[in-house]
Amino acid sequence: xxxxxxxxxxxxxxxxxxxxxxxxxxxxxxxxxxxxxxxxxxxxxxxxxxxxxxxxxxxxxxxxxxxxxxxxxxxxxxxxxxxxxxxxxxxxxxxxxxxxxxxxxxxxxxxxxxxxxxxxxxxxxxxxxxxxxxxxxxxxxxxxxxxxxxxxxxxxxxxxxxxxxxxxxxxxxxxxxxxxxxxxxxxxxxxxxxxxxxxxxxxxxxxxxxxxxxxxxxxxxxxxxxxxxxxxxxxxxxxxxxxxxxxxxxxxxxxx
Length: 256
Hints:
CATH superfamily: Ribonuclease Inhibitor
Number of domains: 1
CATH class: Alpha Beta
Number of helices: 5
Radius of gyration: 28 Å
Oligomer: single chain
Number of strands: 8
Strand order of the largest sheet: 1-2-3-4-5-6-7-8
Helix content: 10-25%
CATH architecture: Alpha-Beta Horseshoe
Distance between the termini: 90 Å
CATH topology: Leucine-rich repeat, LRR (right-handed beta-alpha superhelix)
Strand content: 5-15%
């Protein structure tokens, strides 16, 4: 196949990478390589290993190489919506990391290295939409965690060490086969209530989100079809004409 095509995905050159660096309002430098068709971690990024933030979301990455340890200044790392099934132990060397988004990948419990718990400054960790069946109890050592996303996995238990994280404010465990959710059967509500409305182009949605949106739309149409039409309204034909008493007094009540 021609250069740059095929299983390796899009080839990122050093020049492209340098042009993808943005300076944020807080002075941090972010390497923005989202939605670039990248299938393998570009080695040329080592030339930019001093950046504080990297966005490699919405690509086709399967592996994060051990050279990630060279990015010691990283504070923010976004890898959501890739094909990643495991993390390298070297992820634990990124001591300054406060934000790590791994949502919508293929991570299994075995794919989470024990070294992940060395990220003691981590405040946001998103593991939602993966293939996790259990959580390492050692995640309870991430004492600075404020946000933890665990939604849409196969978890049947949340370890006590994780539940009792001292600074946790938001923990999303929705859509897991947890026993506490099995007991709570929500009442059927035929009226769909919209609390927030977000407009997004179809091309910007990952396949799972697009499928969810289509499902919601189909459900809304189904509910609309169930709504009683004009023909179902009750009719009271006797009220269409005044009765004899009203007819006799109609001039009087019309004047009033």
